[in-house]
Automatic annotation (TrEMBL):
Domain of life from the UniProt record: Bacteria
Phylogenetic lineage: Bacteria, Pseudomonadati, Pseudomonadota, Gammaproteobacteria, Moraxellales
Gene3D superfamilies: Acyl-CoA thioesterase, double hotdog domain
Stored InterPro entries: ACOT8-like_C, Acyl-CoA_hotdog, HotDog_dom_sf, TesB_ACOT8-like_N
Listed Pfam families: 4HBT_3 (PF13622), 4HBT_3C (PF20789)
Start and end residues of each Acyl-CoA thioesterase-like N-terminal HotDog domain: 30-111
Residue ranges constituting the Acyl-CoA thioesterase-like C-terminal domain according to the UniProt record: 134-259
The protein's name in its UniProt record: Thioesterase family protein
Length: 265
């Protein structure tokens, strides 16, 4: 089965810091530039490292905040993961992705103590139609790059700037490793910025995101990610993509992405 990355090596030092080297494949190729990685698999491989980093049954990931320093070049990358604020009830973890001598992505993750809060549980985000009876959405493949070609999408066609799209991929994150539901679904959440673009094609403005903020009030399950997205553009060159994230069991979190709006020549 195809994969987005090949693991080259992993080392753990005396302080517990983990450094892993990966080689990206063509399936990780981005949409804006043929020489870049898409942020979605980059998010996924970071999440794969987070999942393996000193796991504890009493805690889970509640928030991941990823900042994109620039173009994420295809090729060899290195991810260093360390705890920067240890604790029994909350822990802050930092993952830094580097390539070609540059910092590419820095992710900070809050891992939080879990407890039984069923007595007060309640949601305001509503459940949405699941993908089984939705038509195939080929609009996703209007985006260039190897990554989007690995994605299956279903949707009832929506207007520009707002709508619901379901996504899934059968491609493994790392060659030879089974991809967890958490890694597979959180990876695809970066697609929220491209599933319901506010502009018709051909685009007159580019709108790459500089970050990805993910908040999880429960862990996702299954193979389908539902993105209930809204994309908004301000008047001074900055935009925002906001989404409610769903699996087939209902909503499980939200994401935000800040956009830099740049007129295409």
């Amino acid at each position: 089965m195809s994969a987005y990355y090949q693991l080259l090596s992993r080392q753990v030092d005396a302080q517990g810091t983990v450094t892993a080297r990966y080689q990206s494949t063509i399936h990780a190729q981005g949409a804006w530039n043929p020489n870049e990685q898409h942020m979605a698999p980059a998010t996924g491989v970071i999440c794969a490292e987070l999942e393996q980093f000193s796991p504890r049954e009493t805690m889970r990931i509640g928030r991941i905040s990823l900042d994109i320093y620039g173009l994420i070049a295809l090729g060899e990358i290195e991810i260093t993961t360390q705890s920067i604020r240890a604790g029994k009830t909350i822990e802050l973890i930092e993952s830094t992705m580097k390539g070609q001598g540059k910092t590419l992505v820095v992710a900070r993750t809050w891992r939080m103590m879990i407890s039984d809060s069923s007595a007060i549980a309640g949601l305001e985000d509503l459940t949405v139609e699941t993908p089984e009876n939705m038509p195939i959405f080929d609009g996703i493949h209007q985006w260039r790059g190897g990554f989007t070609q690995t994605i299956e999408a279903r949707s009832n066609v929506q207007r520009h700037g707002k709508g619901l799209v379901w996504l899934r991929t059968q491609t493994e994150m790392v060659e030879g490793q089974k991809t967890s539901d958490f890694v597979r679904l959180v990876c695809m959440s970066d697609m929220a910025n491209g599933v319901v673009p506010r502009q018709p094609r051909p685009f007159e403005w580019a709108f790459p995101n500089l970050d990805l903020q993910i908040h999880l009030f429960r862990m996702p399950q299954g193979e389908w990610l539902g993105i209930e997205a809204v994309q908004q553009y301000g008047m001074d060159g900055i935009g925002l993509s906001s989404s409610v994230l769903h699996d087939v069991h209902g909503p499980f979190g939200r994401s935000e992405q800040i956009l830099t709006l740049r007129q295409l020549s």
